[in-house]
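Q: what does this look like with S-adenosylmethionine bound?
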Amino acid sequence: MGPSHPQNSDRPLVDPEALAHVFDALGGGVVDVKPRLLFTECERRFPDPIPLHLFLPPSGIGSITLIEAAVMTALVNLIQPRGIFEFGTFLGYSTALFLRNSPASSPVCSIDLGAAANALDLASGLVEADVRQDAQKNDDFLRSRQGVLGPTYLRNLPPHEAGRLTLLQGDSRALDVSARNLRGRFGLVFVDGGHDEETVRSDTEKAYELIDGDGLILWHDFRSAIHGDVTTYLDKLSSHILVVSVTNTLLAFTAVGNTRTRLISRAAPR
Ligand SMILES: C[S@@+](CC[C@H](N)C(=O)[O-])C[C@H]1O[C@@H](n2cnc3c(N)ncnc32)[C@H](O)[C@@H]1O
């Protein structure tokens, strides 16, 4: 886990019984919840155990962990998003997770730089020790690696998954949500692209356009030991919105509109 943050250190973990009160209790701030809270909610609402379909996690840097995959799948089941948008495809690991564990009616759209990153010659001279410590070098390494390898985990998708997937190539900061007819089409947006504060802010602002008043925004690398800008940005954002941080992961989320109600509802969503 990354460095501790004084403003959160005195906050108790939310009691497993209290998810229904998390969003009502506070106007803003950061609340820590255990993954178990979300798993408990799934058990309460669904009569059958929820399967988790996934590849073994990539051994290299730059993707999610097993516990994060489980938390993301729990959130998808709790909110049943009308569509999923992802900033940062990388090798397609989280994209494939979303495809395999979301409703068959849910489109999945992911953006990354693609082959354009190759022209940037980002990885030359990088050594692993630096990549593991320096935020800029880490991001440059990831951009370069996805440009060279492409979305490995999205090869050989079955037709019913390939038909739901749209891969966009380009700089997410230049994404025009309205011109692409993407406004309001997504119930879940995963922000996991560039980790500098400018890019996190830009991607988050576009996430609000993509959900258009109703959806869940999920960030990766909150309290990351490397990417401090994500924490800096979310700590600022939490002055006026509630950010829920999931312990033992680098995930944090906020829910807006009806999705907020769906997340804390006691009734089964289907
Ligand atoms: C941490 S990786 C994403 C990991 C992936 N979500 C997963 O869990 O498997 C971050 C990705 O963001 C991409 N990225 C960085 N800056 C970007 C930008 N400005 N526009 C689009 N993609 C960007 C990088 O190329 C890299 O592939």
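Residues 26-117+151-242+256-264 form a domain with the Rossmann fold fold (CATH 3.40.50.150). The chain is about 35% helix and 15% strand.
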